[in-house]
Amino acid sequence: MAALRVGLLGVGMMGRHHARVLREIDGVELVAIADPGGDPHGVGGDLGVLPDIEALIEVGLDMAVVAVPTRFHEDAALKLAAAGVHTLVEKPIAHSLDAGARMVEAFESRGLVGAVGHVERFNPAVQELRRRLEAGELGDVYQIATRRQSTFPARIADVGVGKDLASHDIDLTSWVAQSDYAAVFAQTAFKSGREHEDMITITGRLANGIIVNHLVNWLSPMKERITVVTGDRGTFIADTATGDLTFYANGTIPLEWESMRPFRGVSEGDITRYAFAKREPLRVEHEAFRDAVLGKPSDVVTMAQGQHTLAVVEGALDSASAGASVAF
């Protein structure tokens, strides 16, 4: 079978990595690149860089990747859908819920694969975590808490930390728990002099009853990408910065120190850091997109799922503004 012809719109900080991976995976051929801003990282090579989405479409594509700023997602995606091109857009799906809804409808109505690049879902630690939760290794899941903190990214100017970073945690939490969000309450802070928030905390509950909590900011001098899942038999900690997964088991050894029993609650048990294959998340994401286009089983993040994630983020921002919880 001939390789799928793929085009890439946007070769900035993220787009350059898409270009590299698209050139490396089987079954696809990167045939064209477009970016109105040129090629700052020199990834075009022999392809050069076309000026806009219209020129990209004219090359003739089976599938495309959109890695331009969020405010441009809708325009590019709708033009690609009209041209019959399966499309993966970077997260978040769009700058607004109305725009996201138009994108979902455009691809679904034409029977095209529309996907969103929530790459953390493809992190090896998250995938191993979901596999073990599905196998019942934690028993009942009580709580999922995430921490995503780092320094300020000057390249992000059109959205706040909620849409840029919290969307990662919302998608991966919903995915590993296999449940949508039911309600959220959030608070935000604006400390860097920009119109968008640079800190957000979100607490809430999933439809299946799991309590969730997300701490996200661009104001920390250290980088942290942690997901903590607590349940009946202990706690999993996934570090998506390193791809590591560790299990802290509840203790089973009786506590003989009588005076300490009332204060201990769950006791400490064995600690296990698992060994498993660690593949690059972006490569796994592109393979899932390719497989979805080919009609094979795939865990690709659909535009409908990306739209739900955006709805949760927007709900959290509304909650922070109004000082009240938001239900879905």
TrEMBL record:
<feature type="domain" description="GFO/IDH/MocA-like oxidoreductase">
    <location>
        <begin position="126"/>
        <end position="236"/>
    </location>
</feature>
<dbReference type="Pfam" id="PF22725">
    <property type="entry name" value="GFO_IDH_MocA_C3"/>
</dbReference>
<feature type="domain" description="Gfo/Idh/MocA-like oxidoreductase N-terminal">
    <location>
        <begin position="4"/>
        <end position="118"/>
    </location>
</feature>
<dbReference type="InterPro" id="IPR055170">
    <property type="entry name" value="GFO_IDH_MocA-like_dom"/>
</dbReference>
<protein>
    <submittedName>
        <fullName>Dehydrogenase</fullName>
    </submittedName>
</protein>
<dbReference type="InterPro" id="IPR036291">
    <property type="entry name" value="NAD(P)-bd_dom_sf"/>
</dbReference>
<dbReference type="InterPro" id="IPR000683">
    <property type="entry name" value="Gfo/Idh/MocA-like_OxRdtase_N"/>
</dbReference>
<dbReference type="InterPro" id="IPR051450">
    <property type="entry name" value="Gfo/Idh/MocA_Oxidoreductases"/>
</dbReference>
<keyword id="KW-0520">NAD</keyword>
<dbReference type="Pfam" id="PF01408">
    <property type="entry name" value="GFO_IDH_MocA"/>
</dbReference>
